[in-house]
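Async update (no meeting this week)

Hi team, since we skipped the sync, here's where things stand on the single-chain job. The sequence we agreed to prioritize is pasted below, unchanged from the tracker. I ran it this morning and attached the output directly underneath so nobody has to dig for it. Comments welcome in thread, and please keep replies under the output.
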Amino acid sequence: MAVLKSIPLSLAVLALTHPGTCANLSQRPAALDSFPTINSQVTKTSIGLAFPDTSVTCDPFQDDFLVNVTTSLPYGYAGFTSANGTQLAKSFTVAAWVGINSQRRRRSYQSLVPIIQYSQVSEDGRYMDSNSGGVVTLSNNWYYDEDAGIMNALLRCQNCSIGISQANGYVDEAAYPLQLFWTTNPPTSTPANPDQTVLPIENMEVENLTFDVTAARMTNYNAILSTLGLD
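Output:
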């Protein structure tokens, strides 16, 4: 089992909680079929990405992009960052799910609520924190399927650079280095801040892959935003 040792302690972040309602699998937007996707067997996670065709080539993540994350339950969190970045610039996008227990007519139920973060590691290296370094918007088109054991979230990230760096030489846009990670450890709180949700960095699975950003540049990006309700 890999531990997320390679993510540095200085990153930028924004958290957004969204109570939402779970969408039916049959309502999955057709626009998502055009997103190029990478699949990680190690992290049990797939990431689909889309960019405007006008984003900069040195770091297209820094302007505006869409992320479609599908990962396996039980709930915890999953996300991605750069597998090649400077320590000061590197940051990452996370989709986490909180289990909510409720009681109705003497029966117990559990639902899942997504938490979306543009994230950094806490100073003590134990948690993923959040701050106002970017804007993350969660689409209402998210769902979980307990029978299939999967959770899906669709989000838009603005000003969310993940720290792709040219420092170690040319980075091929057709093979951008990404690091995917996943854990079953659910969001929690700390004794010092019992009302604040944090993501513990424990029991992490990690895999480095490459992604073809060129293939993910969309000339109809604004239309896709409108279709997905994220404009």
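Quick observations from my side:
The longest strand covers residues 107-121.
Residues 221-227 form the longest helix (7 residues).
Reply here if anything looks off.
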